[in-house]
Amino acid sequence: MITEEENNLLTQTGKGTPCGELMRRYWQPAALSEELAADKPLPVQLFGEELILFRDGDGKPALIGRYCAHQGVDMIYGRIEPDGIRCMYHGWLFDNCGKVVLRGDWLPEKERRWDVGQPAYPCVEAGGVIFTYMGPGAAPVLASYEFLTVAAENRAVTKIEVNCNYLQANEGNIDPLHLSFLHRNLQDSERDKQRLVPGSSATPNSLVRKDQTPVIEVDVAEFGLRIYTIRKPGDGRQYLRVTNYIYPNLAAFNGLTTGEGYSAHWHVPIDDHSHWKYAFIFSRVRPLSEEIRERIRVETTDGNHLKRSKENRYLQNRETMRSETFSGMGFHFHAQDAFATETQGPVQNRCEEHLVSSDKPIVASRKLLLKAIQDVRDGCEPPHLLREPSAAHEPRIIVLSEVIPADVNPREYVRSLEAKR
Description:
This protein is an alpha+beta fold. The chain has helices at residues 4-11, 18-23, 146-149, 166-173, 190-193, 204-210, 290-295, 333-342, 360-377, 410-419; strands at residues 28-32, 42-46, 49-55, 61-65, 79-81, 84-86, 93-94, 99-102, 112-117, 120-121, 123-126, 129-132, 155-162, 215-221, 224-231, 237-246, 250-253, 263-271, 274-282, 400-405. It starts with a helix and ends with a helix.
């Protein structure tokens, strides 16, 4: 249980809030690359700020305030021109730094930039996503996560709107115990049967069914937390899964490509009551099949909104709870996750929760996040920022799903894999 003040610190991300100031010091996803056409601005809301995203004359993304600095006209209707975006009302032209471009047809002097303008934030494009930096000073280097750097054919990304605070969704990613219940299939589906755990002839689903009360441990890492989940399937061995919490709003975990890659969710606040979940999946060794690409997009209405929602009770079918899935909410985990996090309310009241030993990752991640927030308040740099381009390496993120001998220490086993990288 935490205090109301701590809960507010962790969940309020608007401009000027302590957590908002922390979040803005990291690169954050602003849109999928495929969403932004060359000739049409895209409205974007991040951390409560209304913004407009467009491509400049070189095709590079730019992010500025949505409403014209002159008289507040909505720039979603603006004209895209080689030098920026022009307001339809009086023709004010804003460059990719949000400054007004004054031309000779306005003044007898040469073209120049006027200090009047919109808020503006730098952007970079990587891994099929447009990222922005909304913090003060020079932007850090965007971390070279594998899901951003592999070849385009080896990765897929989508985004889903989730109607709750970003934190409860990210905490769901690092809660291993709920796999024993919410995501459990009552029998292996055909898709389950295609995924055998290394070191065994069993599926992840069957191994989870055999031990629903795993041992859960956490280690603090340079990027956040490394989480170990150890289950005893009853054959004298142990089933080890390793997932990761990554500062400040990202998680990496097992998915359809575990063993040759992993899945990641990046939870980006729209405001304090809703957020975008950017879902990544990749393989180090081969192009992704169309089945995997479609898998991360299924059961959505327009690609970004789930068919199963709180309004339709997530289409829960109680008959299927007898023979198919524990939840009765289909086989797609995005909808199951939405149920678990959205029904906690727009912002979970953590002052009334009762945590237990299996909640170690959640407790630890909150402590790390509160410490990072305090670091920023104290004028210090938060953790897991890369300042030198030469240091733009992928953090040592290991995602694992393996059956290992009972006498092997899980931590030592992971450290041995880390040393081989």
